[in-house]
Amino acid sequence: MPLDDRYQLAFRLYPYARSADQDAGHPVHHPVIVVGGGPIGLAMALDLGRQGIPVLLLDDHEGVGQGSRAICFAKRCLEIADRYGAAGPMLDKGVVWKIGKVFHDDRQVFEFNLLPEAGHKFPAFINLQQPYFERFLFEQIERERAKGAPIEIRGRNRVEGVTPEAEGVTLDILTPDGPYRLHADWLIACDGAGSPTRKRLGLDFEGRVFEDSFLIADIRMTGEDFPTERWFWFEPHFKSGASALLHRQPDGIWRVDFQIGWDVDRAEELKEENVRRRLDAMLPGVDYEIVWTSIYTFQCRRMRQFRHGRVIFAGDSAHQVSPFGARGANSGMQDVDNLGWKLGLVVRGRAPERLLDSYHEERAFGADENILNSTRATDFITPKSTISHVFRNAVLDLAERHAFARPLVNSGRLSVPCTYDGLSLTGEDALPGAPDRSRPGSPCPDAPLGHGFLLERLGGDFVLLTIDADAPETLEADGLTIRRVALKTADDPTGALAARYLGTATGAVYLIRPDQHVVARWARFDDAATRAALRRACARD
Amino acid sequence: MTDLILTPNIADPDGFYAALIAAHDGLSDKESAAMNARLILILANQVGDREVLAQALEAAKKSD
């Protein structure tokens, strides 16, 4: 296959340049190679490069593809991007919304206000076109490279062959100057739902197909000042689809989404006059310009194993969900967050290779939770039997009049990170009276401190967080240095820290992983218990 | 006198809804209708209170 673009670029960021590796005459060795320059591949390179792990990213294009695609980036995803130093421009550019309206036919069923909890650096989520998200990650990679981070990106380098070996992987790569080979200790496949790497290795990707198609149109409203709200219609009176969604993005652009049925003629439906017919019925009298259109179908599925020896899958290549609930890119960023520190420790020889098995254990658990939630939303939005349709509409009818039915209305449950309850790396909960939300396995909830926020203080290493409790300033164990973050109730002007980490306890010691998940917690510092928890979190036991 | 509860009262509403729909898997429309009838009678017995049941019947009638 010639090296032609499969899609148009929104931003050309890494033009092809011949590498010395292509003239070496033998496969040059790299510790880590990432395949795929989407949001997950870029974040993976950023995470590893910031740790000082040399990483090479190969992409078959020269930049970011066009089309808004993923548009909802949730708080945890932004917190991860913030740890990488990339969240500022995302927040500046992104649209924050709080009000949602749900309609059935020509009636408003109810209106909701997300009323996000106060005391977090980031909102519940922002709307931002995927190309911007990717560009901001790339720009952070450039800044890290300027500071010496060993990250290299090679555009128009298409992986054509993957040969796994006991201690690494050999890759066959095609470039505009012809083929060459590389060797890597570790290959991270971030090459999307259609993952060529997964197919080449003949690996499974089983799940459920949803027999429905969705037409997306991104439109620029000219003149209208629509409110920044999310509007969702079940069986809309304007008949443009079995459901419809209107959602704001930056640059005066709106995402419109129509559920148009399973058996559709894609080329016909994507003709501008046909897209306009649907849009005009929904937005009578409104002037708009069509920026991008696409038709998508989806499946909910995942690989049985995310790690295959020295080849590890992250993001959509490992798991795919329906778009309801924004669990695609958001969960992929959590994969990176989870894999980054583990691979870093293994590459540096600070943890055994089996630590990487916990990546599969934890993220497959997360993927199952995401698949469950997005499947339930999809079943509610697109009922597939007469009786499920009857129940769905009964819920909508009742929700109009009675509050009790509103929690049953499901047009997508917002992506929230999962808690690794009871999994291999999760340690003991020895802090009586402490809140459930920060139990071992949980992602640390943010909290405002006098200056800045808690998560900024935690950073990206193992830390010992103490609140009104004594502990050594540093702890040396297994070649790692654990830093103490010492806080007192005086550092907690709003009381959020105490509410989220102490509950009725008077002091607390938390051991926190580099991905800001809680390992274990205690009422007071105990050297032996802390060391045991750390060994467990590094799969040393 | 007890009043009919019309505010959210079901823990894990998504899980309950999924179980409700799954209970109808593989049933014909007629079998589903019969299943619903049995379910209503079981739930009505659980409620017991005639006044509450009267309010529930009223709430279930469409207003429009």
Automatic annotation (TrEMBL), chain A:
GO biological process, one term: 3-(3-hydroxy)phenylpropionate catabolic process
GO molecular function, one term: 3-(3-hydroxyphenyl)propionate hydroxylase activity
Domain of life: Bacteria
Assigned keywords, A-Z: Oxidoreductase
FAD-binding domain mapped to chain residues: 31-365
UniProt keyword Transcription present: no
Keyword Oxidoreductase: yes
A Pfam match: FAD_binding_3
Matches recorded under SUPFAM superfamilies: FAD/NAD(P)-binding domain
Protein known as: FAD-dependent oxidoreductase
UniProtKB/TrEMBL annotation, chain B:
Superkingdom of this protein's organism: Bacteria
Pfam family, any one: DUF2783
Name of the featured protein: DUF2783 domain-containing protein
